Amino acid sequence: MSFQFPESFLWGGAIAANQVEGAYLSDGKGLSTSDVQPKGAHGELVDRKAGDYNIKDTAIDFYHRYPEDIALFAEMGFTCLRLSIAWSRIYPNGDDLEPNEAGLAYYDRIFNELEKHDITPLVTLSHYEMPLNLAKQYQGWASRDVIECFTRYAKTVFERYGHRVKRWLTFNEINVTLHEPFTGSGLPRDCTEQTRFQAIHHQLVASAKAVKLCHDIIPDAKIGNMILGAMLYPLTCHPSDMVKTLMQNREWLMFGDIQARGYYPSYMTRKFRDMGVELNITPEDEEALKETIDFISFSYYMTGCASADPKQADNADANMLQMIANPYLKASEWGWQIDPVGLRYLLNFLYDRYQKPLFIVENGLGAKDVPNESGEIIDDYRITYLNDHLYQVGEAIQDGVEVMGYTSWGPIDLVSASTAQLSKRYGFIYVDRDDNGEGSLARSRKKSFYWYQDIIQSRGATLAAPDQGQS
């Protein structure tokens, strides 16, 4: 690729506390909603008992091994690491009046290590977990009281880390509550649409309040949202499919519209009426929502199709979503369709819509990596996937899209959010642990480690033009 990415472009990877840290009750941490999902977001909820087992209790032990892992990220040339703070490490019950100092001190050590290696932290305040007590005692985000709990937490971490953390995100994939209400908002899975959308409203208000706190406490910081980029194409060019696609894309675009513009879009008036939903939106809520984000961040794994034809059933899995499969695309081992060009399309679409900087904070390929006889992992399939997606990011930048950076999911093998598997591997770094929790936890470099190192060093100049049949 003759084009080079801008010098300011941030290169790195993305991890989440509940999927890497382990140490699930260490140093005063409280239980989180993730801790009662031993089989991931798709699995059943359990009550924790003494001596029971959850693979995330240890995960990949990043809690203790972070110096080694961050050194490996630095060796690849990372200029950015997206990570999350575990809310229940800071406020174990969520409604505590005072923070847990041991939890705060842990992230001090993380940021010290990142600073030592000149890696910019991009910090998510809430990534698929909240203190379990808030879900049990308050019915999660269904309660307006949780707004105060979250803003207290946000204020605490902004004041503690604001001198060194200048890039923040509020909620990970905030639109996922539409599909996995417990994972997204601590709601019962059988909640009503009224409850679901009222909880989403409370979360959006809390996000806006956190944005204002960040702007007030850390004036030189930037804070963005994070949405699951679930772009749909019409299955055919029939006008009914076009309208159906418009309506379904608005389901996730609503979140970006509110967070970037500061008010509910007019198209939601009819949707709420058709669903029989009447939100309790106070004048104070409307004022709070006016504090808008500085940039748009999103995850991108695949696209899907939409159709008005009831005979066309959803038949493609997509990061907790269901979509109609695109007949022109291939799929991963987990059934996620692979569409690099869709990333260029999404970048252009979002930039046209919002005119705000964009940040790709998750993109990657989950696969069953198997060491060869020499113990090496030759993951050419991952290299192809990432090359083709990054090539399209370069195309979007040349289209005029302002892209802040790219953090692949996840740079080191970690526990899957949807299924709690370690065999679904994303990393450039292999972790010796299996789905049963067996293994030494030793780290080793995959072939993709050296490939990404070269891509970062060359600022994308060594990206290969994709095969025409693939992209």
Automatic annotation (TrEMBL):
Protein name per its UniProtKB record: 6-phospho-beta-glucosidase
Active site as annotated: E362 (nucleophile)
GO MF annotation, one: 6-phospho-beta-glucosidase activity
EC number annotated for this UniProt entry: 3.2.1.86
Coiled-coil regions listed in the entry: none
Native organism taxonomy: Bacteria, Pseudomonadati, Pseudomonadota, Gammaproteobacteria, Vibrionales
Broad EC category: hydrolase
Domain of life: Bacteria
Similarity comment: Belongs to the glycosyl hydrolase 1 family.
Native source species: Vibrio eleionomae
Record's keyword terms, sorted: Glycosidase, Hydrolase
GO biological process: carbohydrate catabolic process
One Gene Ontology cellular component annotation held by this UniProt entry: cytosol
Hydrolase as UniProt keyword: yes
